[in-house]
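Q: what sequence does this backbone want?
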């Protein structure tokens, strides 16, 4: 007979275990329900709550008149679909219909079919759908030819003005563009991002179990602020003309790119600024995929050795110090030996012109004379280098100009301080005529403005008004005396009147013109197996000058850069292209000085805040 298996002790133990376990569960439940109640509610709310941000309307960008829209925002449709709600037949029919309406090629149509064959709840089919296409899609929905797709409005940045060349929009480099996330890239769009974008509308809403936002639960947390419009200093008509001229020169000279800027020397307002090749800002994604370097604006974002346009900085230093006068006679020899014969400086034609006045030597662009004058700025090379370098800094080289577009570089590394890295005689001589130093075109334009406007270093800018608020006019810091500015202006006059080569293709009938040209070799550090070499038959051509309605008061400064131009005439001392920098200057300067109302309106605006004039 088997023994009994029940036991009071065992039952008691089990009872105690169950009671303890029950108490533990009840206590834990009470802990979660009472002590941690608020924390649990917060966690649950966080899992079902979504913060919605809706971008505000982005501000538009206009030219100086306030009537020509250069950039604006429009609503375009985004086409989305819910493939998980479609039958196989609906997926196939919808794919076929949409492929035709969207005009997709075979590859894009295959991608569409793959997206619609998935089990995803939401997929974007197309963006920036044109209004005419949207209407066809709505009609197909109503007719039942497609199913479970929707058209959702989204803001799209557009640039409505055509540029001066094919496949470009007006002032593309200057403006930049806005990416998919609504963030400005390059130019004005990036620099003024916060001003143009405003602040977004934010709301709190709940989501259901599938993650779908329940719009009727939305609560506005911040109504946001719309973006502010900008009015630029750019004249749209002059900008078109400028871009057309750059395109013509780019083609004729077979150049890498051609750039120009038209600047008011008294206020720093930029009336036109462009580089060709340009791009279509409405199709920036295609450029980003194929040639993103096209977005970089050489006027503000790349430095180069400017060549003989820098002789005016040497002239400024020497005339101010009193080591020369315009009439000082200096012997021009073909070659100048330096550093105890280890280095040398040559004129472009490797010949000397004998005794010349200083102003004639600048007009004929004699490298040897410029080097001699630079060497004479001090008792020794160190002192002379310090004097020349100080003039460079005063005129804004080696530091940002402060122009209000994104991506400006200072070029500080290329304006070497002789106090930190001592210069040899050859360094001083080369710097005297713009080799061994690198600057941006906007720095050159700003420096030349100071040379001719009475000696004030203005800050270049492209925005004239933010909303209804006009930006105050600033006449800049005085860096040169008015007397010196007058001497330098006359020296520029002498350059274009003394040399027939310049005079015939630079002067504008009825106007006063002055300036300086420059041609510089281009160093390629990758050539010669990494040891570097000068590029063969490729040069940088520059011209910076002014045009005036009245003698003694320059109205505009125009800076030209032709990068890697290809000469058609290449002889010692004669390197010519179909469109030389000074000939391009004349065409652009004439277009600018004759632009209707441009200077008339400028003169009226300056009456309240007179700019210093060269005496």
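A:
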């Amino acid at each position: 007979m088997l023994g009994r298996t029940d036991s009071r002790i065992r039952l008691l133990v089990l009872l105690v275990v169950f009671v303890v376990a029950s108490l533990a569960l009840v206590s834990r439940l009470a802990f979660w329900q009472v002590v941690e109640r608020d924390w649990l509610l917060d966690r649950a709310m966080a899992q079902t709550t979504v913060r919605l941000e809706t971008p505000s309307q982005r501000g538009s960008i206009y030219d100086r008149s306030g009537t020509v829209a250069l950039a604006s925002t429009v609503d375009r449709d985004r086409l989305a679909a819910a493939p998980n709600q479609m039958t196989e037949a609906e997926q196939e029919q919808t794919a076929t219909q949409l492929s035709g309406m969207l005009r997709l090629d075979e590859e894009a149509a295959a991608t569409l079919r793959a997206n619609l064959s998935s089990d995803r709840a939401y997929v974007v089919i197309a963006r920036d759908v044109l209004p005419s296409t949207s209407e066809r899609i709505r009609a197909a929905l109503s007719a039942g030819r497609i199913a479970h797709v929707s058209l959702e409005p989204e803001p799209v940045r557009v640039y409505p003005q055509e540029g001066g060349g094919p496949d470009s929009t007006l002032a593309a480099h200057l403006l930049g563009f806005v990416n998919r996330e609504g963030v400005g890239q390059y130019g004005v769009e990036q620099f003024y991002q916060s001003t143009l974008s405003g602040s977004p509308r934010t709301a709190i809403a709940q989501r259901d179990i599938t993650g779908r936002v329940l719009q009727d639960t939305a609560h506005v947390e911040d109504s946001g602020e719309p973006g502010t419009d900008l009015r630029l200093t750019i004249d749209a008509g002059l900008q078109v003309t400028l871009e057309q001229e750059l395109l013509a020169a780019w083609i004729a000279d077979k150049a890498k790119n051609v750039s120009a800027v038209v600047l008011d020397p008294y206020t720093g307002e930029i009336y036109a600024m462009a580089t060709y090749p340009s791009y279509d800002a409405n199709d920036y994604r295609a450029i980003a995929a194929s040639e993103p370097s096209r977005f970089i604006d050489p006027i503000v974002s790349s430095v180069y050795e400017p060549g003989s346009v820098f002789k005016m900085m040497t002239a400024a230093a020497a005339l101010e110090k009193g080591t020369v006068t315009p009439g000082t006679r200096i012997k021009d020899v073909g070659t100048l030996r330096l550093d105890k014969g280890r280095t040398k400086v040559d004129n472009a034609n490797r010949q000397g012109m004998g005794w010349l006045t200083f102003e004639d030597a600048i007009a004929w662009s004699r490298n040897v004379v410029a080097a001699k004058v630079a060497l004479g700025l001090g008792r020794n090379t160190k002192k002379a280098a310090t004097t020349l370098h100080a003039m460079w800094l005063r005129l804004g080289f080696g530091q940002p100009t402060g122009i209000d577009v994104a991506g400006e570089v200072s070029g500080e590394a290329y304006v070497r301080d002789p106090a930190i890295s001592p210069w040899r005689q050859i360094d001083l001589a080369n710097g005297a005529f713009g080799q061994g130093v690198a600057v941006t075109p906007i720095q050159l334009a700003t420096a030349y403005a100071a040379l001719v406007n009475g000696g004030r270093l203005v800050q270049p800018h492209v925005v004239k008004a933010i909303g209804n608020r006009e930006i105050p006019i600033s006449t800049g810091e005085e860096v040169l005396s008015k007397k010196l500015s007058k001497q330098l202006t006359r020296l520029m006059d002498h350059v274009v009147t003394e040399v027939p080569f310049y005079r015939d293709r630079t002067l504008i009938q009825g106007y006063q013109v002055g300036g300086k040209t420059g041609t510089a070799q281009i160093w390629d550090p990758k050539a010669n197996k990494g040891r570097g070499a000068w590029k063969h038959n490729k040069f940088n051509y520059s011209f910076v000058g002014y045009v005036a309605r009245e003698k003694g008061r320059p109205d505009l400064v125009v800076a030209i850069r032709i990068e890697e131009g290809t000469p058609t005439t290449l002889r010692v001392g004669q390197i010519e292209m179909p469109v030389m920098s000074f000939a391009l200057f004349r065409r652009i300067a004439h277009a600018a000085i004759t632009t209707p109302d441009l200077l008339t309106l400028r003169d009226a605006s300056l009456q309240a805040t007179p700019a210093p004039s060269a005496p």
